[in-house]
Structure formats: C-alpha cells, structure tokens
Design a protein that fits this description.
The complex is a heterotrimer of chains A (625), B (112) and C (204). With 625 residues, chain A is mostly helical. Chain A has helices at 24-27, 31-60, 70-105, 113-132, 150-153, 158-186, 199-230, 244-278, 285-298, 314-342, 351-374, 376-382, 386-416, 422-448, 465-495, 533-538, 575-591, 595-617; strands at 9-10, 13-14, 539-541, 547-549. In chain A, the strands form two sheets. A two-stranded antiparallel sheet of chain A has the order 1-2. A two-stranded antiparallel sheet of chain A has the order 3-4. Chain B has two domains: 2-74; 76-112. Helix content of chain B is 67%, strand content 0%. The longest helix of chain B is centred in the last third of the chain and has 28 residues, at 76-103. By secondary structure, chain C is mainly alpha-helical. Chain C is built from seven helices and no strands. Chain C has helices spanning 3-8, 22-48, 58-61, 64-89, 93-123, 132-163, 170-200. In chain C, α5 (93-123) runs antiparallel to α6 (132-163) and α6 packs antiparallel against α7 (170-200). Chain C starts with a helix and ends with a helix. The chains are: A mainly alpha (625), B mainly alpha (112), C mainly alpha (204). Chains in contact: A-B, A-C, B-C. Chains B and C meet through α1, α2, α3 and α4 of B and α1, α2, α4 and α7 of C. The complex binds protoporphyrin IX containing FE and copper (II) ion.
Chain lengths: 625, 112, 204
C-alpha cells in the first residue's frame, strides 16, 4: 500500500507509536499480544464461571439445599453456561488461533490486524456487558439456549441482556472468522501449501467457516427476540401466532455448528501436540484434515437432534437420527489417527501430552454418549436429564478444556520464554482428571435415574443423594487443580526454566523463531519445503529410516545487531477500541429505551461511526520516520 | 479450495466489462422487472405465476451477480464463498420450512 | 498440490498466497455470511406471512405499483454503481463522483419510499405488534433498509475521500469503489429476492 501520500498526524490525534509498556496493550494490533489478551481474559471468565459452578454444586450437594434460592440458581446456571461457552471456550480457542496461526503459516501478522484488535475489544466489552446485568436487576435466567416463549415471558432485563450480549459477542466472532479465513487463505509463507499446513491451522479454517455461516443465524434469532422484548414484536409469542419452534430451529442451526466451533480448535491442538511427543509425524494427515472438514460440513445437517421430543414427525426424526450417527464416523477417524500417531512412537509423557491423551479418553466417552442421544427413542428418555449434562461436559470440559490446557502447557514457553513446571503441571493434570470424572461421571447415573436438568433442589429419597455429593466433591477437586495451575504460572514467572527456541524438539514453524518471538515473528519469511518443515530442517533420514540430527540444523538465526531492521509492521491504532466502545452503549440504549436510552443509542452509534471513519482514513502502517 | 493457487484466475481480474455492456444488462433487468409486475396482474397466468416469478427473480439475481459483481470475470474463489452461502441457506432453510409445513399441519392457525 | 505452483503464483503487486486482494476476499466472505442472515429473516417471514390475526393480510396491505417503482429505483442504482467503477478504472475521478452521488441519491429515494411505505402501513393498521406477519415484515424489510442506509454512508464517504484526495490513485481508488460496489449490489440482490418472494408471490 502506498503510504507516502498520507500525513502522519490526522485530525486531533497523533497515532500511538509505542509497542511496549502498559498502554501499548490498549492500542496494539500485534496478533501475539491480542492472543495473550484473549487467553487471559477468557481465563478470568473461566474462574468466574467456575465459581458459579461451585455455587451450583454446593446447592445440589444435598437434598433441600438452601444456599441459592430458585431465582439466583436460574441466573447462575444460565450465566455459567453462557460464560463457559461464549466467554471461555470460544475465546480461548480464538486466543490460541491469534497467537499461533500467523506463526504456524510463516506470516508476520493476520490479514487485518486492526480488525483483530476490534474483535478482542468487542469480545471484552460484550462479556462485561453481559455480566453488568447482575447489577442491573438480574442476569439472564432462561438457560443458555433461551427457549421460547420463556425467553420473552421472563420478567426483568435478564433475557434482554442475553439477546444483546450474545449479539455483541457475535460481532466479535464474525469479524474474527473473516480475519482467519483470509489470513489462512492468503497469508501463507511461500511453499506453505494448504496440505502442508499444521492440523491446527486447518481446524482453525474449518472453525472460521462454521462461525462465518452460523453467527448470522443466531444473530437473526437474537434480533427477533430483542424486537419481541423491547419493541412489541411477537415473533415467539404463541398467543399471537408466534411459533416457539422457530426459535429452536434457528438456535440449533447455530447451536450445533457451535459445538464444533468449540471442539475443533482443541482437536487441532491435540493433533499438533501428539506428533511432537510421539516423535512421529501425525498418522494419516490427509484423513485427519478431511475428517475435520467433513465434520464441519456434516455439522450443518444434524441440528434437529436437539429437537427430537418436539414432534418433528417420524421422517424428520429418522433423518436427523441417521445424520447424527453418521457424524460419529469422521469423529472416529480422528480418534484412530491420534491413536495411530502414538502407536509405536517414542512417547514422552509431558504435561501437554497428558492433557492431550486425557482429551482423547474423555472425548471418546462424551462422543459415545452423544451417539446414544442420536437414537431418537432413546433420547426421548434422556432429554432434559443429567445424562445430557454428562454428555456435554465430557465433550466440552473433558474435550475442549483439556485440549486447551494441553495447548497452554505446550505453547507457554513459546509465548513467555519460560517453561511451566512439569511437576506442578502433572499435579494439575491428575487432579483435574480425577476431579472431572468425579464430578461428571455420576451425572450419567443421575440422569438415567431420572434426575432432571435445571432443578434448583430435590427432596431426599429419590436415590440421588450419594451421586450428587460425589459430584460436588469432584467440583472442588477441579477448583483445587485450577489453583495449582495458577500457582504454576506465578511461580515459574519468577524462577522458571529458560525455554529456548525449541524446548520440546517440535516439528512446526513457530519453534524456529525465538521464544518469545519478535514483533515481526520471523527475521526472514521462511520458505517451506515440507509438511512439518522445521523437523525436516533438524533431521534427515538415515538409510535405515531412522531420523538423524542435522548439525546446527534448525538453529535460530539471530543477528542481534540488525534484528528486525527494515521490517515494516502495522502500526498501533486507537480506533479499534473506540469503535468497539460504541456497541455496549447501543446495547444499554435498547435495554433502557427511554430518553436516556435513546441518547445512549445516538451516542453509541456516533462513537462507533467515529471509530470506523478514523480507521478507514488512517493507513494500516505508518511510514517510518 | 484446493485450487487456491491458480495464477490464471488472478490474471483475469482486469477484464471488466465496458459501460455499454453494463447498460445492456441494466436494460434487461428493467425489462424483466416490468414483466414481473405485468404478469402479476394477468389472471390467465394465475397457475404458473409462482414458478414464473421465481424464474424471473433468479434471472435478475444471476445477472447482477455475474455482471455487476463481476463474478463472471473474477476468480472462482469469490464465487465459491458466495455460492456456499446461498446453497447452505437454501438447503437448511428449505428443510426447516419443509418440517413446519408438512408436519405441523401448515402455517396458518389464523389465516384470513 | 506441488510446490512450484505456489512459488510462481503471486502477481506483481499483490503479496498474497492466492494473488487475490485480501479485502475483496473478505467482502465476499462477509456476503456469503449475509446470505444466511437474510435467509433466516426470509424463512421467518415465509412461516408467518399468513398469520395475521385481526390485522391486514399481505395482500390487503401491499401497494404493488408503488413498491415496483422503488424496486426499480434500487435496481438502477446498481447500474450507476458499476458506471462509477468503470469511470474510476479509466482514471476519471470526476465522473466517478457523479455516478457515486447518483447511486447514493437513488438509495435515498429508495429509503424515502420505505419510510413512506412503513408510515402508510401503520396508518392502515399494520404495526410490528399487530401480528407475527407484521413483526416479520417490518423487521425483514427494516434490516434491508438498514443495510441500504449503511451503504449510502459508505458511498458518501467515498465521494468525500475522492474530493479530499484520500481515495488514492486510479488503481487503489478502483479497489475501494469495487469493494463498496460489491456490498451495494448485494443489497440490491437481496431486494430482488424480497420483491418477488415477499411482495409478488400471492399468499393464498
Ligand atoms: C459424536 C459426536 C456427537 C454426537 C453424536 C452428539 C449428539 C448429541 C445429541 C443427540 C444431543 C441432544 C441431546 C438432548 O438434548 O437430548 C447433544 C447435546 C449436546 N451436545 Fe452433543 N454430540 C456429539 C458431540 C458433541 C460435541 C463435540 C460437543 C461440544 C464440544 C457437544 C455438545 C453438546 C451440547 C452442549 C449439548 C447439549 C445442549 C443443551 O441441551 O444444552 N456434542 N449431543
Ligand atoms: Cu448437536
């Protein structure tokens, strides 16, 4: 882009310049900083959501619990679900994508760095917006899927916050999706063909496409809900001819792709961790990539398996049961690939490896209970019981969260230059593994014994007491494991082992640069000749087919004296955060649609427009002075 | 997407049509719109009205996409994004409406 | 896929893996997403169009001749849009500005028509709260109108940038105009569908 024609000073602002220091985080467009901000923010929400879960479990530990009343209980389980899905698993995945995708494909940044910053701020403000509801008359309390017509009959502003908060978060997701699609398609280093990309990049691409096509559907459902709640429309009001099932269709058309949006990044992480610690390339690369794409594709044809009990009719029920069973096939392919990768490898049971193996084991259990739901008559018994709760915790916690922790332990040294303690890491893993199974294993039994979802208390004598107590104990074990993780981070920040560029003897490009990488990632854009290119720079194959180390191969070239000279990086910018600020203002404006609200609407629109105009008028990168 | 890299595609980019062609396309669009409105008022066509209208709409849609949005001349990659969205929407929403209209006894509890 | 393809691909001024422009690709991705957005609203409308309670039916309320004219206006704004693009591709900034301004004006005429239509409907007894038909009609066409409005702002921004010399050279300018043009044509295409499916296809 020709930048010479633009003045450096525009209007009243001078562009922020510094790329270090506290303030640089607010205006940064560096994908690595944004990635870290995503992960840290999501981790804080993880703690908040976890505390809500502890409160829920304490309430249910014994019959006739009196810790939470019904109203607060409803708010807590709803906010717990929304938090874990939209403020934890999704943004943690996005955080890792942010940090890693450019490094993995040999790029210096994402395609649209400012849009990337915008996504982060919108996500943060959306999360804060959603949580502010607790102080403004009560949080959403209609469940994470907010079924109609309850979603409009519930009093207070809670479900309006739901409609608007998720809408704002959706903007962040959509912008992120576009950004990652274009980055992966268009920003690859020379020689990085699509079929040489690390599996994590592939899974990011599939996830981004799912977001691209799923977010607009939930956006419409949420807009309709918003118009019902705030502007007298009657979309989902059965007394006015509205159809509650329309909400369910729109919600699950988004909702099922959404579950893959949450699990695919974790699958990608595991597919990159396992080869490193098995000393082998991924088994069946093409199959695993294809299976990922197939899951993304088939994920569009199963939404009504969440609606088996709504009376879709025998034809639709059978068709959706079948499609749901079929989707287990590509899922199974992946599991075989992971096992094949470990098979006969020289395994190193490091913490990231343990989390990856934990992921596989737990995900198999969750996948199998998923298949039992797919049998429609079977599901009629399970629907709305704790059995379903067991299923989605095995795939989401045992799956996604374990995968994400695997990624944290694996890439931590890359991002911060220091290794996390292996000893504490293993304590973390085993505590979490134990606590997880103790918490959610009993749910299977409870569900099959008829305990319904979303009850705030139960009487004794139902045969549910013991399992509930076990589960609550498990929940506290999980909390303990999270504390161990935090301790690990705090301790190793101060006296952790220096990581060096390539502490794991890994295979992919991010390990070929320093830890942490410089702002521009690579001194020279790598030229890629192989899949797992970095490995091939380090090892050649002996005639016996054994890998042999190349002397000095893969060494990181750092010419300290001229590092980064002449590399032109995108400049920091005020405008992403400005543009993002307008959205929550718009949200409050709708919620308080009186004269103050209308003023907020105007203000929000102006702020966002100002941000966008400033954004368009400044170049992506300033000319160097 | 495996054809991501295809140098031929990008070279074609600059062969945009001339204003004359644009105007011709616009005239066709105008005529088709006039036809749409006209047949709406012809009673004799009642039975075939819906298919005819849909066909006309598709023609207009495709002409705008191919000529004004240059999909005819541009890289196939752009077309793929768009067509994926359209086909996905048609399929999933087709199924949703099919479920509503076949099983739940039609759409109109309060039809006038 | 083999290596040499990639190494040889990038075209002179694009430094991208496919040789395609990032922003244009992003715009198409966004438009793909928008298909699902409008698809959801149209689905809602199709499900609800006969559910009118005591309110007016689609047939009673629609003014086909009026809407035909405003549809025609929007359709022609697509022509002026491409003419603006053709002008800047020739390097003719002034003609481009004229056509862009025409496009924006046609867009405003369309929006004016919509405002008139909405007010008349409300007077005739169809409000957003009247029936689910009312809800789905107003929200669907309202969101389309919002898209047109955003488009008008972008067109005016282009004109402003061109006048203050910020649009860039002929090549860069054409890139920007084409981008906004894609959005504009898409909004037009959506109206083509809405005009047929919502207005023309009879209900009973
Ligand atoms: C083998 C693959 C899978 C199959 C066959 C499957 C099947 C199902 C079915 C049929 C249901 C509906 C149960 C009911 O409500 O009665 C369900 C619920 C659910 N599934 Fe899965 N699933 C699979 C994988 C996953 C994955 C990977 C995730 C997330 C990472 C996931 C998350 C969920 C969630 C969150 C729900 C509950 C939604 C709710 O009612 O709140 N599933 N699954
Ligand atoms: Cu599902």
């Amino acid at each position: 882009m020709a930048t010479a024609a633009y003045p450096t000073r525009r209007g009243f602002f001078t562009r922020p310049r510094s790329t270090t220091g506290k303030w640089s985080w607010f205006f940064t467009v560096d994908h690595k900083k944004i990635g870290i901000m995503y992960c840290v923010t999501a981790f804080i929400f993880f703690i908040v959501g976890g505390l809500e879960a502890l409160a829920i479990r304490s309430q249910l530990a014994q019959p006739n619990g009196e810790i939470l009343n019904a109203e607060v209980y409803n708010q807590f389980f709803t906010m717990h679900g929304l938090t874990m899905i939209f403020l934890v698993v999704m943004p943690m995945g996005v955080g890792l994508m942010n940090y890693l995708v450019p490094l993995l494909i040999g790029a210096r940044d994402v395609a649209f760095p400012r849009l990337n910053a915008f996504s982060y701020w919108v996500f943060l403000f959306g999360g804060i917006f959603l949580y502010s509801s607790f102080f403004l008359g009560g949080a959403p309390d209609g469940g994470w899927f907010g079924y109609a017509p309850l979603n409009e009959t519930l009093p207070g502003h809670g479900m309006t916050f739901y409609a608007l908060g998720l809408q704002i978060l959706g903007v962040a997701s959509l912008a992120g999706a576009v950004n990652f699609i274009i980055t992966i398609i268009n920003m690859r280093a020379p020689g990085m063909t699509l079929l040489r990309m690390p599996v994590f990049v592939w899974m990011t691409l599939v996830t981004a496409f799912l977001l691209l096509f799923a977010m607009p559907i939930i956006a419409v459902a949420l807009f309709e809900l918003m118009f019902d709640r705030a502007f007298q429309a009657t979309f989902f009001d059965p007394t006015q001819g509205g159809d509650p099932l329309l909400w369910q269709h729109l919600f699950w058309l988004f909702g099922h792709p959404e579950v893959y949006i949450m699990i695919l990044p974790a699958m990608g992480i595991v597919s990159d961790v396992l080869p490193t610690f098995s000393g082998k390339p991924i088994f069946g690369y093409n199959a695993i990539v294809f299976a990922g794409a197939a899951i993304g594709f088939m994920g569009w044809g199963v939404w009504a398996h969440h609606m088996f009990t709504t009376g879709l009719g025998p034809v639709a029920n059978s068709a959706f049961a079948l499609s749901t069973m079929f989707i287990a096939v590509p899922t199974g392919v992946k599991i075989f690939n992971w096992i094949g990768t470990m098979w006969g490898g020289s395994l190193r049971f490091t913490t990231p490896m343990l989390f990856s193996i934990g992921f596989i084991a737990m995900f198999i259990i969750g996948g199998l209970s998923g298949v039992t739901h797919s049998i429609a008559p079977h599901d009629a018994q399970q629907q709305d019981t704790y059995y379903v709760v067991a299923h989605f915790h095995y795939v989401l916690f045992g799956g996604a969260i374990f995968g994400l922790f695997s990624g944290f332990y694996y890439w931590w040294p890359k991002a911060f230059g220091k290794l996390l303690s292996e000893k504490l890491g293993k304590v973390h893993f085993w505590l979490m593994f134990l606590g997880f199974n103790l918490t959610f294993g009993p749910f299977h039994v409870l569900g099959l014994n008829g305990m319904p979802r979303r009850i705030y208390t139960y009487v004794e004598g139902m045969g549910w007491d013991f399992m509930n107590l076990l589960s609550t104990i498990g929940a506290f074990v999980i909390a303990l494991s999270a504390l161990v993780f935090i301790a690990n981070v705090v301790i190793t920040r101060r006296r952790g082992e220096e990581a060096g560029a390539d502490p794991w003897d890994a295979r992919t490009l991010e390990w070929s640069t320093t830890s942490p990488p410089p702002e521009y990632n690579f001194e020279e854009i790598p030229i890629v000749r192989h899949r797992d290119d970095f490995w091939h720079r380090k090892y050649i194959e002996t005639p016996e087919g054994e890998p042999a180390r190349v002397l000095a191969g893969g060494a990181v070239a750092t010419h300290e004296h001229e590092a980064g000279h002449g590399i032109h990086m995108p400049s920091p910018s005020y405008f992403p955060i400005v543009a993002a600020t307008g959205l929550p203002l718009l949200g409050y404006g709708v919620i308080y649609f009186n004269s103050t609200g209308k003023a907020l609407l105007v203000l929000g629109a102006l702020v966002t427009m100002m941000g966008l105009f400033g954004w368009v008028l400044e170049p992506g990168a300033e000319e160097r002075v | 997407m495996s054809h991501a890299v295809d140098s031929r595609e990008s070279e074609e980019q600059d062969h945009h049509p001339q204003p004359g062609q644009y105007i011709k396309v616009a005239i066709i669009l105008a005529v088709v719109t006039a036809l749409e409105v006209a047949i709406y008022y012809v009673d004799a066509l009642r039975d075939v009205l819906v298919p005819l209208l849909l066909a006309f709409a598709v023609i207009k849609f495709i002409m705008v996409a191919l000529w004004f949005m240059h999909l005819r001349f541009d890289s196939r990659m752009f077309r793929r994004f768009f067509v994926t969205g359209i086909v996905l929407a048609l399929v999933v929403f087709g199924i949703v409406l099919w479920i509503f209209f076949t099983h739940l006894g039609g759409p109109a509890p309060t039809a006038a | 896929m083999s290596t040499h393809e990639v190494a040889s691909a990038p075209v002179a001024e694009h430094h991208t893996s496919t040789g395609l422009d990032n922003t244009k690709l992003a715009m198409w991705a966004f438009l793909g997403s928008e298909c699902l957005f409008f698809g959801s609203f149209i689905t809602t409308y199709l499900l609800y169009r006969n559910r009118v309670l005591d309110g007016p039916t689609p047939h009673e309320i629609y003014d086909i001749p009026f809407t035909s004219v405003s549809s025609f206006i929007l359709l022609m704004s697509s022509l002026t849009m491409v003419l603006a693009l053709a002008a800047i591709q020739r390097g003719d900034h002034k003609t481009m500005r004229v056509w862009l301004a025409c496009t924006a004006l046609l867009g405003m005429a369309f929006i004016g028509g919509q405002v008139y239509e909405f007010t008349t409907f409300v007077e005739e007894g169809l409000k957003i709260s009247t029936s689910v038909f009312g809800s789905s009609f107003f929200v669907l066409t309202g969101f389309h109108g919002a898209h047109v409005t955003v488009g008008i702002f972008m067109l005016l921004a282009l004109v402003g940038m061109s006048m203050s010399g910020r649009l860039g050279d002929r090549h860069e300018g054409a890139r920007k105009v084409e981008l906004i043009g894609l959005y504009w044509h898409f909004v037009d295409i959506v109206w083509i569908v809405i005009f047929t499916v919502i207005y023309l296809i009879p209900t009973n």
